[in-house]
């Protein structure tokens, strides 16, 4: 009898909606130039630590988009959000993708040049 429920898609049961990241503070105040440099370095090196390049590209597009577009990108790529702020994501094969806070939002102590 319970078989009908077990056939539900895991993505339906475990789907999380993307939420705006919580405010955070960097140990050292950053300029917008510093933040951009850190983000570029992360995205340039992230694929070398595992996972698929296409998934990293989708994560970058989602990280740089507004929340509704980011949700559409994540959904269409079949990604599973372990954290609603996208700092921990898994692909359909179970590969783990960790994103630092600084690629998702600006710190509260950002120095505007």
What do these coordinates show?
- With 113 residues, the protein is of the alpha+beta class.
- It is built from 6 helices and 5 strands; from the N terminus they run H-H-E-H-H-H-E-E-E-H-E.
- The chain has helices spanning 3-6, 10-14, 32-45, 53-63, 67-76, 101-104; strands at residues 30-31, 80-81, 88-90, 96-98, 110-111.
- The strands form 2 sheets. It has a 3-stranded antiparallel beta sheet with strand order 2-3-4, with no helix packed on it. A two-stranded parallel ribbon has the order 1-5.
- Helix 4 runs antiparallel to helix 5.
- Mean pLDDT is 89; it is low at 1-13.
- This is DC-UbP/UBTD2 N-terminal domain-containing protein.
- Residues 1-29 are annotated as: Disordered.
- It comes from Platanthera zijinensis.
């Amino acid at each position: 009898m319970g078989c009908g429920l077990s056939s539900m898609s895991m993505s339906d049961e475990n789907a999380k909606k993307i939420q705006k990241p919580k405010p955070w503070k960097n140990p050292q105040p950053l300029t917008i130039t510093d933040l951009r440099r850190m983000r570029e370095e992360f995205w340039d090196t992230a694929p070398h630590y595992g996972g698929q390049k296409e998934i990293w590209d989708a994560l970058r597009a989602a990280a740089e988009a507004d929340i509704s577009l980011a949700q559409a990108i994540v959904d269409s790529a079949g990604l599973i959000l372990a954290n609603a702020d996208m700092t921990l994501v898994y692909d359909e094969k179970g590969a783990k993708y960790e994103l630092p806070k600084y690629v998702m939002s600006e710190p509260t102590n950002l120095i505007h040049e």
